[in-house]
Predict the 3D structure of the following.
Amino acid sequence: MPTPQRIAVVGLGYVGLPLAVVLAHHFAVVGYDRDAGRVAELRDGGDRTGEVDSATLRATTMEITADAKAMAGADVFIVTVPTPVDANNEPDLTAVRGASRTIGGFIAKGAVVVFESTVYPGVTEDICGPEIAAASGLRCGEDFFLGYSPERINPGDREHTVDRITKVIAGQTPVVTEMLKELYGAVTSGGVFVARDIKTAEAAKVIENAQRDINIAFINEVTCIFHKIGISAHDVLDASMTKWNFLNFRPGLVGGHCIGVDPFYLAHRAKELGHEPEIILAGRRINDAMGGFVADEIARRLPSGRVLVLGITLRRTCPTCATPR
Amino acid sequence: MPTPQRIAVVGLGYVGLPLAVVLAHHFAVVGYDRDAGRVAELRDGGDRTGEVDSATLRATTMEITADAKAMAGADVFIVTVPTPVDANNEPDLTAVRGASRTIGGFIAKGAVVVFESTVYPGVTEDICGPEIAAASGLRCGEDFFLGYSPERINPGDREHTVDRITKVIAGQTPVVTEMLKELYGAVTSGGVFVARDIKTAEAAKVIENAQRDINIAFINEVTCIFHKIGISAHDVLDASMTKWNFLNFRPGLVGGHCIGVDPFYLAHRAKELGHEPEIILAGRRINDAMGGFVADEIARRLPSGRVLVLGITLRRTCPTCATPR
């Protein structure tokens, strides 16, 4: 498989934009977002997610467009669209399905479609591949090929950026994998890790955030227990932290696009397969209940008065996460 | 409170023995175990737990005895007896209650009783203190005093030994705390951490092992899910480990005296207080079920034949943990 000549990045949010910008240092890149407002903002040098600064954005050679037709002729498509949950905490695959169909409208024979969106194992091959095939009339694995490389963007984190982290990759065939090694190897100094297959790469991502979720949930659970005992979780954790292998998690709220969402993706697939995900869903219940616990405590201690909540965003530098779930 | 003149260590197992040996470098120590066989073995220079080597044991100045009366006149008692669970996974406090009553038979006014056994918050003050008071006729907090300092023995670990780790301590009064700082400060180069109070110190210990338990349980849960998906947990974890903050836990069985037991102590107290410990008990259920999962897989793949199980101990250097729960 030849070196990519033209890469289309589908979705220019806090994941796709910084990736497209660094790819454009090495390849011809077209960045597509269906939101014309976002495209106008980016063309004007502004990124409200704060991931890419204005000078870098103005200097980029990539084409930024809300016109899907501009992606025609790309030999690699990279999909970085949101994978949220719906009101029932079930995976909402509308965006990845939609992106797959859009790509299917333009994809040429021999092209590769790489997904970076966080999904449960099987979404790329069992859902996205067939969507592209149906929209294009091409055969998956013969006329076009799939890949998966989980995004590891930590919003607002200036240390673990896409050009420095290790990128996990997996291709549908060894030839695709080799091409992805070259592609991602060009943009990151952190190296490329080849996962055994696409489902393994999908699984690797979804457990990363689930692991953080259950660790925070454990600390939240013991915080509630200690509250009933009449001792401070902070005092207890200060003492536990003096053990050499205690893990430093603190009680608190879990929000944002990732940690509070990804475990439901894994849980969904587990339930489909008849395995009740006990600890994963216990973690979600506990963390989602912490807001109520904090609010109840405030109400109990401050029976009247108005409360000013400061810092409602997920983190200081992350305006995109300003809407709590 | 003066420097301790005579310290009695109650229980010479894998926790009490190494502690008593290092204390004897600085203080007059009597080591008591109610098991005459264990005492004979130790007097003969043998420690089947492998924590103290023969030369060290033969050189110790401490008195090793199965005669409780030898503890008379001690100004500090340190209790290092087992705190297991019963057949219903409820805390079995028989040994700490028994040790408390034994101490109550000899304790003199002004003495301090320190517990190192892992317990839920409240056991030292609400159960052990009253037992000692009842057996001695002395008043807790006036005639005698309580302390707590959780043991952190990691069986077979030659790096994190009692003379090198940070010891968490808490005394019933500031004067007791100062004495414990001096006592434990003399034996460890890892320093002493003063917890806010005895319940906080009890809580700090019990969550250390519970945290490990739920982390292993999470990995075990996803291992079972990946098994149904048809991918290898080891392949997935190899990929996840390339993320900078992924925690290195592996699927496996949980046994031994600590990780599989301590969470039930915390869960017991939580339930007494009306708080259902969701994630803690989910972790216990998952880890206790892993033996069956492994056995079922072996049976499925090897429908006939005999299986030789090697390495049935908790770990290579830990004969005391040879009996799986």
